[in-house]
Write a structure and sequence with these properties.
The chain is an alpha/beta fold. The chain has five helices and twelve strands. It is globular, with a radius of gyration of 15 Å.
Length: 186
């Protein structure tokens, strides 16, 4: 199966909840709360996102071993996102955090199609047609933006957060050569 060389995840409402603009400064991981304490909120990975990320851990899915992982977020709170990446545990028994799996980061206010993805291509050397992108598209259609401005990227909308089913369907569509915004009907 042809796999992407770079798999890119949005953060807010795709990998985790709540969104960074909704919270106070995050502090530490609290196992009893199952996430990062941020004032009265707790930032937690979606169950599907945690399951997908565990597949990138050493000893996980061997098919994904060659793929690089990137995050692209247009959050207005990049420092909060960095704290959460460094504290959110992918597998509490093993101790790995999300940041341990991320090879490339583009986290700052800006458009993904004009800023984040061109920067990821320049930094990684991976052409757009070898990238797979997952985004919730809550505040705008980032998938359509990336697909139109960065031809060749395969884009998957995750309106309720990343799930294993959407991830697997995205990988399968990528392997079939589908690009642009993928209509996975899930």
């Amino acid at each position: 199966m042809a796999l992407p060389a770079l798999i890119v995840f949005d953060l807010d409402a795709c990998l985790w909840s709540p969104e960074m603009f909704e919270i106070a400064r995050p502090t530490v991981y609290d196992a009893t709360r199952g996430g990062v304490v941020a004032g009265s909120h707790t930032v937690t990975l979606f169950a599907g996102a945690a399951a997908v990320l565990r597949r990138f851990l050493p000893g996980g899915d061997p098919q994904l071993a060659q793929a690089k992982v990137a995050v692209a977020s247009s959050t207005t709170e990049p420092k909060y996102a960095a704290i959460c990446l460094g504290a959110l545990q992918v597998d509490p028994e093993r101790g790995e955090v999300v940041a341990d799996l991320v090879d490339l980061r583009q986290i700052y206010p800006g458009h993904k199609g004009t800023s984040h993805f061109p920067a990821l291509r320049a930094e990684s050397g991976v052409p757009f047609d070898r990238m797979l992108f997952f985004d919730d598209c809550t505040y705008g259609d980032n998938c359509a933006d990336v697909a139109s401005r960065c031809p060749g990227v395969a884009c998957v909308r995750t309106p309720d957060g990343l799930t294993e089913a959407l991830f697997d369907a995205g990988l399968a569509a990528f392997a079939r050569g589908e690009r642009g915004v993928l209509n996975l009907n899930m």
